[in-house]
Specification:
107 residues; 2 strands; mainly alpha; 3 helices; elongated; 50% helix
C-alpha cells in the first residue's frame, strides 16, 4: 500500500494541472457538503430552543384558492391571538426571507 501511495504522489507531481484541478474539486466538494450539512443540522435536525418543542405548531394563512402564504399582518395576528381558544398561547416570530426581505410567521 505504501508503494501505491508513492506511485500516486509521483503521478500527481508529474501532472501539476491535473493535480490542481483534482485538489480544487475535492476542496469544493468538501466545502459544499459542510455547508449543506450545517444548514440541514441547524434548520431540521436540531430541536427548537423552546420548552416542549414537539407541541409547537406553525400557522399559515390560506387564500380562497387554497394557496398557502407566509405573511400575516400584525392586526390579523392580534385578532387570531385574542380570539383563539385551541392553543395555550399564540406568538408571532419574524424571520428574514431569502429573496423578499422580512416575513413573519405565527408560531
Amino acid at each position: 500500500m505504501l508503494n501505491d501511495l508513492k506511485y500516486a504522489l509521483r503521478a500527481l507531481r508529474g501532472a501539476p494541472a491535473f493535480t490542481l484541478v483534482a485538489v480544487a474539486t475535492l476542496a469544493l466538494g468538501i466545502a459544499v457538503n459542510t455547508i449543506a450539512f450545517t444548514l440541514l443540522n441547524s434548520l431540521a435536525l436540531r430541536p427548537m430552543p423552546v420548552r416542549d418543542a414537539s407541541r409547537v405548531v406553525r400557522i399559515y394563512p390560506v387564500d380562497e384558492t387554497g394557496r398557502r402564504h407566509n405573511l400575516f399582518s400584525y392586526p390579523d395576528y392580534q385578532s387570531y391571538r385574542d380570539q383563539q381558544q385551541s392553543f395555550e398561547a399564540l406568538v408571532a416570530s419574524w424571520r428574514s426571507a431569502p429573496a423578499a426581505g422580512a416575513s413573519s410567521a405565527i408560531s
